[in-house]
Amino acid sequence: MTMINSKIGGAGLVLLLTGLPFAFAASQTAPPAAVVEVTVRVEKAGQFLPSLTLDDFEVREDGRPQRLEALYLFKGQDLLRHEERTPVAVTASRHFYLLFQTTDYDPRLAEAVDDLFRNVLRPGDSMTLMTPLKVYALTGDALQAKPLEVLSKEMQQILRKDIQAGSGEYREIIRDLRRIVQAIGGTSRAVDADMETDSTASAFGLEMTLDRYRQNLTKLESLRLLDERKLLSFAGGLKAQSGRKYVYLFYQREFRPEISSGVLTTMLSMYQDQPNVLGDLQDLFQFYRRELPLQMGTIQRAFADAGLCLNFIFMNKESQAIFGATMREQSEDVFRVFTAIAKATGGLSETAQNPAASFRAASQATSEHYLLYYTPDNPAKDGTFRTIEVRARGEGLSVSNRQGYFAR
Question: pLDDT at position 373, please?
Fold first, then answer.
């Protein structure tokens, strides 16, 4: 198999969204630089509406109506219909990117990969698989080198191996956090019994345990860090690629073992005369209230400008009950970030127990779309971000498109 392997490094749930090692053939044609391309999906009652004409659309840039040049209706690779006031050379190539940020292997992830190979990829397409360990890029020629079912099995095996190996450190930290939290819960009861005879020694041991707990929390955060620079680099790398670009990010819901509120309350009461212990406990409260230092507007504009369609598939799972611990949901930050990015690109956000079904629904929904082209009334290449608003004629319609682009 002709494959490009690029080890990104790191382990666990690090969002390694650096520039991918692209090796795709350049498209044969591309729209002229003066024309802006917008992928538009129009739905009514949850169903794509394929009957719209050029006159049914209105495009506004920074609030001003624009002159539409052409409309192309696609379903997958197939051009079903087109209208042209000014002919535009449409880029036909498609690139698919499957990104997996999961700690546990789910066999239904393999079903999603298989669905891509069996039902989505066609001659001329290319695909990139990104696991917690590596990036695997398949060019159009590589996809022709072997039967797709063979390539599918190989990529499924790679995905399983990399998820199991790449998230080993993450899982070990979670296990250690569980042990520490349970020990702290047990220690608080033991200290209560021995308080009069050994409070100093117990406090010293608790300080060490809390310090170890905090260190593990810090390690966990470093593994799941959302790096703004890497996100922007990833968007920039995809912008450099011509053609229609579809990104599917699979992200698994996370839970973090925390000291239960009851145990914390007991400890705060018990160690009123131990300022070091109280300080450590108060630091934990601050750690729990973390905020992502991201400039979301900057990130959303970068992804919209890249001309890609990002679909966020959030894999739900139930928390495991751990005696003496509170399993705290810690995916809200990531969920908010990628939901916002998906919306900025005109993509979908799906939350489901079955990632294969979510992928199938997202890929089918985004395969049907319009390509609209317009010539901006402001030709200045001043580097400013121009917002795009698309309206469609009709009642009860839902319109999705990218947020805008940088005039460069």
Answer: 97
Which CATH number is correct for 4-169+224-258+288-406, 3.40.50, 2.60.470, 3.30.450, 1.10.1070? 3.40.50
Question: How is residue 112 annotated by DSSP?
Answer: H
pLDDT tens for 96-105 read 999 998 888 9
Domain ranges of the chain: 4-169+224-258+288-406
pLDDT of residue 29: 46
Contact by Cβ (8 Å): 394, 49 = yes
How many Cβ atoms from other residues are within 10 Å of residue 261's Cβ?
9
Classified as helix, coil or strand, 153 is: helix
Q: Over the stretch 294-352, which tens digit does the pLDDT of each residue have? A: 899 999 999 999 999 999 999 987 777 766 677 887 788 889 999 999 999 999 999 98
**DSSP reduced 3-state for 43:** strand
Q: Two tokens at 353?
A: 């127990």
Residues 52-84: b if buried by 16+ CB within 10 A, e if exposed: beeebbebebbeeebebbbbbbbebbeeeebee
Nearest Cα neighbor of 178 from 101, 260, 253 is: 260
- Name the stretches of the chain with pLDDT < 50: 1-30, 187-201
Residue corresponding to tokens 């696609």: 74
Question: Which pLDDT belongs to residue 17?
Answer: 42
Q: What is the pTM of this model?
A: 0.83
Q: What whole-number distance in Å separates Cα of residue 379 and Cα of residue 32? A: 13
User: In whole angstroms, what is the distance from residue 23 CA to residue 11 CA?
Assistant: 25
| CA neighbor of 173 nearest in space, from 256, 281, 291 | 256
Residue 376's pLDDT is 96
Are 91 and 30 contacting, i.e. CB atoms less than 8 angstroms apart? yes
Q: Are 369 and 401 in contact (CB under 8 A)?
A: no
